[in-house]
Amino acid sequence: MAKIAKRVKKAQEAFEGKSNLSVEDAVKLIKDAASAKFDETLEIAMNLGVDPRHADQMVRGVVLLPNGTGKTVRVAVFARGAKADEAKAAGADIVGAEELMETIQSGKIEFDRCIATPDMMPLVGRLGKILGPRNLMPNPKVGTVTMDVANAVKAAKGGEVQFKVEKAGVIHGGIGKVSFTEEALAQNVRAFVDAVTRAKPAGAKGTYVKKVSLSSTMGPGVSVDLATTAQA
Predict the structure, then answer these.
(1) What is the pLDDT of residues 156-209, one digit of tens each?
(2) What Cα–Cα distance (Å) separates residue 95 from each residue in 83, 102, 214?
(3) Structural domain harbouring 144
(4) In which residue ranges of the chain is pLDDT below 50?
(5) Backbone dihedral angles phi then psi of residue 87, each to the nearest 5 degrees
(6) Is the pTM of this model over 0.70?
(7) CB 32 within 8 A of CB 14
(8) 182-198 and 23-33 helices, crossing angle to 10°
(9) Are 108 and 166 part of one and the same domain?
(10) Same domain, 88 and 150
(11) Hey, what's the torsion of the CAs at 167, 201, 190, 212, to 10 degrees?
(12) Could you tell me whether strands 113-116 and 75-78 are parallel, antiparallel, or unpaired per DSSP bridges?
């Protein structure tokens, strides 16, 4: 415990008085301060000027990070026949229909992303109360209800990240591992911010992106200069 406390104190000292850094400087600071025994995730938090209680201010979408997330994503697919075969060939971890529904209803959820063909949605709809709160419900707006299950599976496993604004107007996301190069992480940061910016809803008024902060899983956070988050 003493060693952990010492590492935490050292990290806090490194961040003290620092804010509104460029993306590159923020990433470097976080990488240098990361001291956990595991490969921490670089996490991003974006404070938006929206009220998601209003339908026309909901923000959600998907972004394919240029350098992936560094995380192994387990994918489940609801499909039958040829589409089920396509999903398996693309690398889906679990493929099924009624039997998969029953497995989920029993409380066994061994996947991080759920994809379905459109004809399976009446079946999947019965799982809304289970999958919805876990942000696992397939949705055509983020490409998880599709006939192109092969590409959906490959995208999910290749670094695709879904995002959805929370009640307080904040979007969180894991966008890489601190073991990635500074350049790779900076590219992922900009890709994520760009995707959220492009997802600006019609009802958003005033300043849309208010603040962007970065942190590692176990480390302090630091705010980023918004001017440096734009794609080159």
Answers:
(1) 998 899 999 998 999 999 999 999 999 999 999 999 999 999 999 999 999 999
(2) 10, 13, 36
(3) 75-156
(4) 4
(5) -65, -45
(6) yes
(7) yes
(8) 130
(9) no
(10) yes
(11) -40
(12) parallel
Structure tokens at 194: 């760009």
Up-side HSE of residue 21: CA atoms within 13 Å toward CB?
Answer: 20
CATH number, residue 91: 3.40.50.790
* pLDDT at residue number 6: 60
Q: What is the DSSP string of 8-72?
A: HHHHHHHHTT--SB-HHHHHHHHHHH---SS-PEEEEEEEES--TTSGGG--EEEEE-TT--S-P
Residues in the chain: 232
Cβ atoms 203, 56 nearer than 8 A: yes
Q: Which residues of 104-131 are buried (b: 16+ CB within 10 A; e: fewer)?
A: beeeebebbbbbbbeebbeebeebeeeb
pLDDT at position 35 is 83
Q: Per the domain annotation, does 24 fall within a domain?
A: yes
